[in-house]
């Protein structure tokens, strides 16, 4: 009777290692797909939740692990706009032990913004507005805020109201300021609501109305 041929131990170990690697890759891919499906929406609410954790003082965020950063950078380099914008926030706010780097932040915001991500477009608009990591430009800021605001981004609508109210990069125009503030206010922006109240109180761009100012 013929004795069965045994598989060499090193080949067994190699097959086991390959299987583990495949399982790890599948787990990462499945996790990333679930992440995108659960976090991405037309109004970018998922990314807003990410940013709220980045902007907080709590350092126990998903970005504190070097392994997580490696995965995030890898995904961003492959074109994932959510991860690109998240990296922009990480470098902008120096989270998870990452050194603050405004230039690097602007680079990642731009890559995500060019893919149409409204939150990234708004962040890039703010980067140009403040001149962090790139040359200050109200004109470029306005362009990116408009792209984000047209997609319904409330922060961009707020900023456009501010730019027209203050005449930053545009001719001062209270009527246009009110238009953008109203859009933001209708989405629940308390900043826009308070500013509209003030404009009604002073009669800037709209007839003076103390009753509406107090609403």
From TrEMBL:
Signal peptide: none annotated. It comes from the Eukaryota. It holds the Pfam family Sel1. Residues 1-24 are annotated as: Disordered. Belongs to the sel-1 family. This is HCP-like protein.
């Amino acid at each position: 009777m013929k004795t069965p041929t045994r598989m060499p131990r090193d080949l067994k170990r190699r097959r086991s290692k390959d299987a583990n690697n495949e399982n790890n890759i599948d787990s990462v891919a499945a996790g990333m797909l679930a992440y995108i499906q659960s976090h991405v929406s037309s109004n970018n609410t998922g990314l807003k939740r990410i940013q709220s954790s980045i902007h907080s003082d709590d350092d126990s965020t998903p970005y504190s692990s070097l392994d997580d950063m490696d995965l995030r950078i890898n995904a961003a380099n492959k074109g994932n706009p959510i991860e690109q914008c998240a990296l922009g926030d990480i470098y902008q706010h120096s989270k998870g032990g990452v050194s603050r780097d405004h230039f690097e932040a602007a680079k990642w915001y731009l890559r995500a913004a060019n893919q149409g991500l409204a939150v990234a477009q708004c962040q890039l608009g703010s980067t140009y507005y403040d001149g962090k990591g790139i040359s200050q430009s109200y004109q470029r800021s306005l362009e990116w805020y408009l792209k984000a605001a047209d997609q319904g981004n409330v922060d961009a609508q707020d900023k456009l109201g501010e730019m027209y109210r203050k005449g930053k990069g545009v001719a001062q125009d209270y009527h246009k300021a009110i238009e953008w503030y109203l859009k933001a206010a209708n989405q629940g922006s308390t900043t826009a609501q308070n500013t509209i109240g003030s404009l009604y109180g002073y009669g800037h761009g709209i007839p003076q109305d103390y009753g509406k100012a107090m609403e």
